[in-house]
């Protein structure tokens, strides 16, 4: 099935950047690359390797706009926290290897994407990480791909844990019974795309199915609050980093 997308909000503008994490490493090798999924799809990716590894690797999925510069910056931030990271662009099948700048027509491509496409690309990113180490692989996604990150916990990727910022529970509700990894759900209390009721229903279904999850709500925070440009949410951004790193350390 193709993922439903929401046109009522924009995740962030081009002049915004991810907040920096608590630093535990210098960034080593990093840069763009092209990966090939098992179905033959060639897609853009970006990797960032820490000098001092934390003992965990990460498949980083973007928001609906694909491999925007925000996510190459975020990959570097993850490496600063000691996490070996490969960020992937999910639109290679329909948009090729072209740049995902502010003029990219992401809606035309997001509506055609399937969970099977995301899984195939995630496998290729995880394989790249496994070339460097046997560290457990986590997934992290935002917005549309926050839901896809959680969904990957129900697949044969078998992540050590899956993290999503302001994701859509509808992306994963049909596979809750298959989830085999812990989830970290980071929700914006004033999200215009996902209501508190949707999040509460999702968490109830996880709890009823005895699925391990950590649910963190930031009251009053808007969709896409995790951004250094949103000065009024810096405390929430700092806490979100702590939540992510503690989740990874507990489950690696």
Which terms would index this structure?
252 residues; alpha/beta; Rossmann fold; disordered N terminus
Distance between the termini: 31 Å
| Biggest sheet descriptor | 8 strands, mixed
- Overall structural class, as computed from helix and strand content, comes to alpha/beta
How many distinct beta strands? 8
- Helix content range of the residues, please? 25-40%
Oligomer: single chain
Strand content: 15-25%
Q: Stretches where pLDDT falls below 50 for ≥5 residues?
A: 1-10
Order of helices and strands: EEEHEHHHEHEEHEH
Instruction: Please give the radius of gyration in angstroms.
Output: 16 Å
CATH topology of the domain at 55-65 and 102-251: Rossmann fold
**The level-1 CATH class of the domain at 55-65 and 102-251:** Alpha Beta
- Number of alpha- plus pi-helical segments: 7
Rounded average pLDDT: 92
CATH homologous superfamily designation of the domain at 55-65 and 102-251:
Alpha/Beta hydrolase fold, catalytic domain
Which CATH architecture of the domain at 55-65 and 102-251?
3-Layer(aba) Sandwich
Backbone shape: globular
* Order of neighbouring strands in the sheet with most strands: 1-2-4-3-5-6-7-8
Which SSEs are present, and which pair or pack?
Elements: E1 27-36, E2 42-50, E3 57-60, H1 69-80, E4 84-88, H2 92-95, H3 106-110, H4 115-130, E5 137-142, H5 144-152, E6 161-165, E7 183-188, H6 196-208, E8 213-218, H7 234-251
Parallel strand pairs: 3-4, 3-5, 5-6, 6-7, 7-8
Antiparallel strand pairs: 1-2, 2-4
